[in-house]
Amino acid sequence: MLDVFRGEGDQKVDAKGRVSIPAHFRRVIERGDPDFEVGLRPNFIIVYGDANQRWLEFYTIAAMRSIDRRITKLAKGSIPRKALERKFFQHAQPAQLDDEGRVVLTANLRDKLGFNERAYFMAAGDHFKLWKLETYRAEEGDGIDAWLDEQGP
């Protein structure tokens, strides 16, 4: 069975930039780390993207390996490959959950997103997104809610 992220969550970000990952997301991170064993900290990848990306993306190691394989199949030097390399290699960093199931968001990541006290988690299948709650409310629903309304019941 393929493990995917489902659901959402709203968590407090403390003064040190620590935010607790929802428990059901932590289980997917653990299962997606081939080196994870009980007693070890699970690894994952944070993709922060370019200056226009206003959220963080969290991928399991397994999901990122799948993306890596797809990128390396593209022609070297091609614009699509360069764009994906920039996003998934250059604008990404490895991370671990701490013993309490939190991730420490570095100052540059908090500054990029303008985090204050709350973070919003949104599942997206093979990854989840972390938004500043106010930014999510202002941007993510744009267009989607109108489209859903047009679809009817």
Tell me the structural class: alpha+beta
What is the terminal-to-terminal distance? 31 Å
**How would you write the strand order of the largest sheet?**
1-7-8-4-3-5
- Biggest sheet overview: 6 strands, antiparallel
Helix-strand pattern:
EEHEEHHEEHEEHH
Number of strands: 8
Radius of gyration: 16 Å
What characteristic shape results from the CA principal axes? globular
Helix fraction bin? 25-40%
Number of helices: 6
> Strand-residue fraction?
25-35%
Q: If you average the pLDDT, what whole number results?
A: 91
Model regions low in confidence, pLDDT < 50 over at least 5 residues? none
Structural notes for this entry:
The protein is of the alpha+beta class. It is built from six helices and eight strands. Helix 2 (61-72) runs antiparallel to helix 3. The radius of gyration is 16 Å and the shape is globular.
Write the layout of secondary structure elements.
Layout: E1 8-12, E2 18-20, H1 23-31, E3 43-47, E4 55-60, H2 61-72, H3 79-90, E5 92-96, E6 102-104, H4 107-113, E7 118-123, E8 127-132, H5 133-139, H6 144-151
Antiparallel strand pairs: 1-7, 2-6, 3-4, 3-5, 4-8, 7-8
Helix pairs in contact: 2-3
Condensed summary:
The chain is of the alpha+beta class and 153 residues long.
Keywords:
single chain, 153 residues, alpha+beta, six-stranded antiparallel sheet, two-stranded antiparallel sheet, 8 strands, 36% helix, 25% strand
